[in-house]
Design brief:
alpha+beta; about 270 residues; six-stranded mixed β-sheet
Length: about 270
C-alpha cells in the first residue's frame, strides 16, 4: 500500500554576491530571514560568491543559520558559485559540479525521497549572461536531464525570456551593451530560444503551467534602472512526472525582497507520491 504524498517546498534565488556588498552583509542577513520564513525543503542558490573561501566558512555558516545541508559547485572562472541546500528527511545520494561546460557552474544533487523508490535530481543553474548563443549551448547539456518519467527539478537564473511571456518592459531603452545580451537573431526583439529549447526537450515551466500571468523576477525594486529590463529570467522547470504534482508557484515580492537582491526569490511546491 502506498503512503501519503510528500510535500516539497522549493526555493530558488539569485542572491547577488551572496547578499554581501564588500564587508556589508545586511542583504545577507535579510536573505537569511526570508529563507527562515519560507523554510524550504530545498534551496537552490545562485551567486554564492565567496562560499569556497576559508574552508567554506560562509557555506557552513549559512548551513547553521538556515538549518540545511549545503553542496557547493565552484565557478573557478567567475567566482559566482552555485549551491544546493537540503533539509532532512531528504538524504543526499550523489553530487556533481560542472565548471567546464558552463560559464559559471552547474550543481547537480541527487537525493533520496522518504518512502519512494525513485530519487529526485536537483539542478541549480546560472546560465551565461553574455548572449543567447552561449546559453543555448549550456541548455543542450540540460536537455538530456528531462526524461518524462523521472523526478528532476531544474531551477535558477537563465538570463533568458520565456516564449510564453510578453516583451520585457523597458527592453527597448536598455543601454545597447546590456540589450545585446538578450537580443534575438533579428537584433530587434528579445531572444526566447533557450527556454523554447528546454521545453522542447520536455522540461515544464511551472510558472507558466500554474500561473499564466507570471510576475517578473528582475529587477527587484531597489535595483531598478540597472542592467535588466522588467522580465522573468528565473525559472522553476520540472520533468513531467514531477510537474504533475505541482501545486504552488510564487515570486516573493515583499519590502524585504525588494532590497535583498536584484532578483526576487521564487517558491514552488510539489506533492510527490511516496
Amino acid at each position: 500500500m502506498k503512503g501519503a504524498a510528500m510535500t516539497l517546498t522549493i526555493l530558488t534565488w539569485n542572491t547577488l554576491f551572496a547578499g554581501r556588498d564588500g564587508a556589508d552583509d545586511r542583504r545577507a542577513q535579510t536573505q537569511i530571514n526570508v529563507i527562515s520564513q519560507i523554510r524550504p525543503d530545498v534551496f537552490l542558490m545562485q551567486e554564492a560568491k565567496g562560499f569556497d573561501a576559508g574552508g567554506g566558512a560562509l557555506l557552513h555558516a549559512l548551513e547553521s543559520q538556515i538549518g540545511m545541508r549545503g553542496f557547493l559547485a565552484v565557478a573557478t572562472r567567475t567566482g559566482q558559485n552555485v549551491a544546493i541546500f537540503i533539509r532532512e528527511p531528504l538524504r543526499p545520494l550523489s553530487f556533481e559540479m560542472d565548471g567546464a561546460n558552463f560559464h559559471h557552474a552547474l550543481a547537480t544533487l541527487k537525493v533520496a525521497l522518504p518512502g519512494s523508490g525513485q530519487p529526485l535530481t536537483l539542478i541549480s543553474a546560472h546560465l551565461c549572461p553574455n548572449g543567447p548563443a552561449v546559453r543555448r549551448r549550456e541548455a543542450a547539456y540540460l536537455a538530456v536531464q528531462a526524461a518524462a518519467d523521472s523526478y528532476a527539478l531544474l531551477t535558477g537564473d537563465f538570463n533568458s525570456a520565456s516564449p510564453h511571456d510578453p516583451e520585457p518592459e523597458g527592453f527597448d531603452v536598455l543601454p545597447a551593451h546590456h540589450r545585446a545580451r538578450y537580443l534575438a537573431e533579428d537584433l530587434k526583439g528579445t531572444d526566447r530560444s533557450v527556454l523554447t529549447h528546454l521545453e522542447a526537450a520536455g522540461w515544464i515551466d511551472i510558472g507558466h503551467a500554474l500561473v499564466k500571468a507570471v510576475t517578473p523576477t528582475v529587477p527587484a525594486a531597489a535595483f531598478a534602472g540597472t542592467e535588466f529590463a522588467t522580465m522573468r529570467c528565473d525559472y522553476v522547470l520540472a520533468t513531467a512526472a514531477l510537474a504533475a504534482g505541482a501545486s504552488r508557484y510564487e515570486v516573493i515580492r515583499t519590502p524585504e525582497t525588494d532590497a535583498a537582491s536584484d532578483h526576487y526569490p521564487v517558491v514552488a511546491t510539489f506533492e510527490v507520491p511516496a
